[in-house]
Amino acid sequence: MFVKPTWNLHRCVYFAGFLTVCAFFFYTYVIGRQTDFKAVSDLGSLLYVHAALWTGDKVRISAVKDVGEMDNLLCIFLYVAKNYTIVKAYVKDMQRYESEITVAYINCPLTSITDVNEVPLYVDLVIENALSPGHKIRLSVENRHMDPHLIFKNAAKGSKGCERELNEKRVVQFTVCIPPMFEYGNAAQLVEKLEMVRLLGAGRVVLYDTSIESNVRSVLELYTQEWAAGTGTLEVVVLSWKLPRIPMHYKGQIAAMDDCLYRYGWLSHYMVFDDLDEIMIPLRHDNWSQLIADREKARPGSPAFMFRCSVMNKDHSSPPKGFHAAALLYQSSVLSFTQRDTYIYDFSNKGKLIVNPRKMQSLEVHNIYEANGTTDVIPVEQGILYHYRWPLRPCDPEIRDTRVATKFGLRLLQRLRLIWSKLEGISKGDEILRLGESRATCKNR
Fold it and tell me: Do 101 and 209 fall within a single domain?
């Protein structure tokens, strides 16, 4: 971190009839690296802030704060010519878990009274009616080049935005947002995830790095370097996600989802939010595009599409015919595990979402908070979220479900061979696949 030179406000500023910031106070600000959480002081219940993202009509900031309302925060926009404007901040708690600390978002809107017709360089956060600003926080405004109408402009040109472009305005059909990786070393799982979403239609995958092992770093370097060199067909973005030392649900997953939604939503027709051990599988269609197109015909205007979850149990394996050796060699969940719970969770429990970012304001892990419209729950005969994990219901009945391996197995295997041929000597991780069809976790048997 470094200290930004001071900024002199040279006159008194009134907001909503109150003296807010007065002349000749010199601010001292701390500016953090682009994707770090930054601690704040003397800002009421606000504890940490993350990136400030321009959305076309406002700046949106992910934050961590004490639970409760906060209605006395102001945003100061700073511009190239050292002009500034002040607006009221809108703060809303997002996290619904039992905790005294919550993830929240801060919206700093540009209002009709704003007379500066440009995107701000920085946004400062201050408490309304503060007599002395003191030591406050300043954030660089990111995504200043974003165009909220880019998707529609591409559509008007007859372009789907899938062309291979090495620039900051590349539109893809699907961007996949992965939760923060913490002490993560399962390279085999990561490669399989990236290759499966590629087959399903992803053009971009965004991952958040809290702490990863060297083998995973090697995998990510391969994908990012191939993309940068123009030889890759899947854009893989890795963002630093260094967390504050306070209790945060699942490594700040909701904040990461919000960051991904607003950082890449304008470059995505749709966005996919699931985990590394989950895959949203269309069962009657070849890919996500075909499925979503049909669902939009059935339920026009839906902002989100929910896949109900069923667990593929990893306490015993039963690879389909012809995949036994490959399943073991590449530590492939898709090729190894075909025993699924007959139980499919209700949409309100463990489901995951594909969303239209232009109709979405905020969401959490298993549902939407704010959106224009009602979520479409995909019928289980059309699509299921396959969750490859240790059993949650170890003695419940199972069904042999080979649909994923049958539909994608050969193409996936071709990709796994290619990728791992470029990662010679790199560990696939410590996970050991359990061979044999007998269950290991049901103590009643």
Answer: no
**pLDDT band for position 445 (50/70/90)?**
low
pLDDT digit string (tens) for 69-85? 999 999 999 998 778 89
Confidence of residue 371 (pLDDT cuts 50, 70, 90): confident
Instruction: Give me the pLDDT at residue 246, please.
Output: 79
The pLDDT of residue 31 is: 32
With respect to residue 434, please indicate whether it lies within any of the assigned structural domains.
no
Global pTM?
A: 0.88
DSSP collapsed to 3 states, the chain: CEEECCCEECCCEEECCEEEECCCEECEEEECCCCCCEECCCCCCEEEEEEEEECCCEEEEEEEEECCCCCCEEEEEECCCCCEEEEECEEEECCCCCCCEEEEEEEEECCCCCCCCCCCCEEEEEECCCCCCCEEEEEEEECCCCCCCHHHHHHHCCCCCCCCCCCCCCCEEEEEECCCEEEECCHHHHHHHHHHHHHHCCCEEEEEEEEECHHHHHHHHHHHHHHHHCCCCCEEEEEECCCCCCCCHHHHHHHHHHHHHHHHHHHEEEEEECCCCEEEEECCCCCHHHHHHHHHHHCCCCCEEEECEEEEECCCCCCCCCCHHHHHHCCCHHHHCCEEECCCCCCCCCCEEEECHHHEEEECCCCEEEECCCCEECCCCCEEEEEEECCCCCCCCEEECCHHHHHHHHHHHHHHHHHHHCCCCCCCCCCCCCCCCCCCCCCCC
Tell whether 308 and 372 lie within a shared domain.
Answer: yes
* Total number of domains in the chain: 2
Q: Is residue 72 part of a domain?
A: yes
